[in-house]
Write a structure and sequence with these properties.
single chain; 463 residues; alpha+beta; Anthranilate synthase; 13-stranded mixed sheet; 10-stranded antiparallel sheet; 11 helices; binds the ligand C=C(O[C@H]1C=CC=C(C(=O)O)[C@@H]1O)C(=O)O; isomerase; Chorismate_C; ADC_synthase; metal-binding; isochorismate synthase activity
């Protein structure tokens, strides 16, 4: 089977080299095969010797994983337009040579990546390896779907490429990634934690609440940073292993760019596309978990009936409903939220379904939804303006859409929260919360402490 595949891949490559010679354009070639069971985290770990651009995505509730290694095609934009990503994407698909008999979501030509929370803000040095919008079609892609495993090879072929060199590279890479039996590296321990200006942050929460009382806005989400120094360089694969174990029901993701890695376990789906069917989630309003079942239930009940949390949540519901209605039919939003418990905290949760109208894409939806009032505020521009002026944090990709899309109108984006940026032995963790008129700075501060926990416990390697 593999031999046959290699032969037909060779013939695709040779066709691509000929086409690249005539058109004088580089040519994307993509081929997918079904392979034996491979552990996605081990695959990610083994890829370290091949590339410093790796991407990991798991929807733990759906047991769906994709891992990308290297970059066959780069869609990188510094300006603030998702529509241009769509143009690039369509053009790429129109010209690509694709052999994918499976048509399984997340196989074949797949774009993986994310974007900045606010591309109009100048990047600080913290995020200098992350473009404002960056999606890559990986050279090697592992997809796990319904307990079956698929391997896609994507190559950008140039007119002067050598067929034999290309096929040798493919064989060697496959061998390293798919047949590795190496143990996962151990995670370093936490040496030091430093909260960045917590008192100043509390003052900013108070300022935001005052502005809201004065009717300058209705809700503003404010975030802050916790800087962690580890005893040694971080092994992202072991953080991923810990997050997968400790955060069921979350999106566990990592996007590496030139060795820096943005990693997290987000409970918040922004949007999932399954052909024309869309799924989104309103998630805002937070409480801790109880120590006993009874206490947990009581905290949940209180959360459900707490005016402050309900108003934080309702802003999100209203905005997501309106955004969906602009581009979709059959938008369905339940009247009241439910409690969704996660490992370290519980949230108010309202699921949304809709049918995408003809002529619109997942990129239109992302542009319309981001940032929802769960990460920005209400009204959008006034809250973004407040964040830009007062937050004193370069959010970078924190709080922004992160995810993937394929050539068959499938894709999924999470909101990149409960996350951190890994740079060698340093990790910057981010957490925020929705400020409304009754917000108490001390209580919001404590809430951010709980929101750091998923990443902190993954770094500690224990509960
Ligand atoms: C901004 C964050 O969470 C958002 C998502 C869910 C609940 C939230 C809240 O209750 O404030 C936040 O809006 C974060 O985790 O950094």
């Amino acid at each position: 089977m593999i031999e046959v595949k290699l032969k037909s891949f060779e013939s695709l490559l040779s066709k691509a080299i000929t086409k690249a010679k005539t058109t004088e354009y580089n040519q994307l070639v993509s081929m997918t095969e079904e392979i034996h069971e491979v552990d996605p985290v081990r695959f990610f770990a083994s890829a370290k010797t091949l590339s410093m651009d790796r991407v990991f995505w798991t929807s733990t509730s759906e047991q769906f994983s994709i891992v990308g290694v290297g970059c066959a095609w780069n869609i990188e934009l510094e300006e603030n337009r998702t529509e241009t990503i769509e143009n690039h994407w369509q053009q790429l698909l129109d010209e690509a040579i694709i052999d994918n008999p499976y048509q399984v979501p997340g196989t074949g030509v797949v774009g993986l990546g994310g974007m900045s929370f606010d591309p109009s803000v100048r990047k600080s040095s913290l995020w200098n390896k992350f473009s404002h919008r960056s999606f890559q079609v990986p050279n090697v892609l592992l997809t796990k779907h319904n307990a079956r495993n698929y391997l896609t090879i994507n190559l950008q072929v140039k007119a002067n490429d050598d067929l034999q060199e290309l096929t040798e590279w493919v064989e060697q890479s496959k061998d390293i990634l798919v047949n590795s039996s190496e143990r996962l590296p151990e995670c370093a321990g936490i040496a030091r934690q430093q909260e960045i200006a917590p008192d100043k942050w509390k003052q900013t929460v108070k300022l935001a609440a005052d502005k809201i009382k004065a009717h300058a806005a209705q809700k503003i989400v404010l975030a802050r940073e916790l800087r962690v120094t580890m005893t040694d360089d971080v092994q992202v694969a072991s953080i991923l292993r810990n997050l997968l174990e400790k955060q069921p029901d979350s999106y566990v993701f990592a996007v590496e760019r030139a060795g820096d890695c943005f990693v997290g376990a987000s409970p918040e789906r922004l949007v999932k596309q399954d052909n024309n069917q869309l799924f989104s989630v309103c998630l805002a309003g937070t409480a801790p978990r109880g120590k006993t079942e009874a206490e947990d239930r009581e905290i949940g009940e209180n959360l459900l009936h707490d005016d402050k949390n309900r108003s934080e949540h309702d802003f999100v519901v209203k905005m997501i409903r309106q955004s969906m209605e602009a581009y979709c039919d059959a938008v369905h939003v339940p009247e009241t939220p439910v409690i969704h418990p996660f490992r370290n905290l519980q949230h108010l949760y309202t699921p949304v379904t809709a049918q995408l109208k003809r002529g619109y894409s997942i990129f239109d939806i992302i542009e319309k939804l981001h940032p929802t009032p769960a990460l920005g505020g209400v009204p959008r521009e006034a809250s973004k303006d407040f964040i830009r002026k007062h937050e004193q944090l370069d959010r970078g990709w924190y709080g922004a859409p992160v995810g993937w899309f394929d050539s068959n109108r499938n894709g999924e984006f999470a909101v990149a929260i409960r996350s951190g940026l890994v740079q060698g032995d340093k990790v910057s963790l981010f957490a925020g919360c929705g400020v409304v008129k009754d917000s108490d700075p001390e209580a919001e501060y404590k809430e951010t402490m709980i929101k750091f926990r998923p990443m902190l416990s993954a770094l500690e390697g224990r509960q």
